[in-house]
Amino acid sequence: MNTDLYDVIHRRRDVRAEFTGEPIPEEVLGRILTAAHAAPSVGLSQPWDFILVRDPAVRRAFHDHVEEERATFAATLTGAAADRFARIKIDGVLESSVSIVVTYDPERGGPAVLGRHAIADAGLYSVCLAIQNLWLAATAEELGVGWVSFYREPHLRRLLGVPAGIRPVAWLCLGPVTRLQTTPDLERHGWRHRRPLDAVIHHDRW
Questions:
Q1: pLDDT digits (tens, 9 = 90+) for 25-53
Q2: How far apart are CA 97 and CA 18, in angstroms?
Q3: Global confidence as pTM
Q4: What is the average per-residue pLDDT within 171-190?
Q5: CATH of the domain at 44
Q6: Cα–Cα distance for residue pair 44/72, rounded to 1 Å
Q7: Is residue 191 in some structural domain?
């Protein structure tokens, strides 16, 4: 049994504070994007696109929007939850080497996408598989990835000129890191704790 894949899976982290900002060699970035593009997809539709965002002004504009959404979420918290959230860094947009926005095109491979007729979200699931491939490949390359989720899709669509009908699924921060944390950030900060495997396994019925 080759344990390298299992090691990468368990070392993968959602990175926020550890980015160094050092450049990523083009051949390394190419390998990571090739791995993402090798993901399985419903009907072989490959409904993803990857927008590489390096422009500091664009990243600053997105970061400002993320900060506004952070404040909106923080305003819903009180007490200990508010205190815990105040200590959590939620993005590495400015510190990472490059951002990759992954999008979903529901029309690609259509009008009849084999395997999607009964499950409309199968295409979206395919994009998530590409994101996971990207994340694991980056981890294997000793790079960090951070998925930013504090944003509104219409804002990001306008910021990047994403065509109507194309859905931005993930803003990913990518780059070299000082280290990957042993324990995920949210566990370290006491926000949530990982459930044990036996709590999520069912046999034959729920």
A1: 999 999 999 999 999 999 999 999 999 99
A2: 12
A3: 0.94
A4: 93
A5: 3.40.109.10
A6: 39
A7: no
Distance CA 136, CA 131 (A): 9
Question: Does some domain include residue 190?
Answer: no
H/E run at residue 158: helix 153-160
Phi, psi of 176 (to 5 degrees): -60, 150
CA nearest 132: which of 5, 4, 2? 5
Residue 140 lies in a domain: yes
Q: Please check whether residue 145 is in contact with residue 63, taking contact to mean a CB–CB distance below 8 angstroms.
A: no
For 149, the domain range is 4-177
Distance CA 110, CA 193 (A): 41
Across-strand partners of 52? 100
Structure confidence by residue, pLDDT tens digits, 119-154: 989 999 999 999 999 999 999 999 999 999 999 999
Q: How far apart are CA 147 and CA 90, in angstroms?
A: 9
Q: Which of 84, 59, 85 is nearest to 71 (CA)?
A: 85
Counting Cβ atoms within 10 Å, is residue 168 exposed (0-12), middle (13-18) or buried (19+)?
Answer: buried
Residue 78 structure tokens: 């009180």
Residue 195 Rama label (left phi>0; alpha psi -120 to 50; beta): beta
Pairing of strands 48-53, 98-104: antiparallel
102 in a domain, yes or no?
yes
Instruction: Provide the number of structural domains found in the chain.
Output: 1
Q: With residue 185 as reference, give the H or E element that holds it.
A: helix 185-188
Q: Which residue from 100, 203, 81, 106 is spatially nearest to 156, judged by alpha carbons?
A: 100
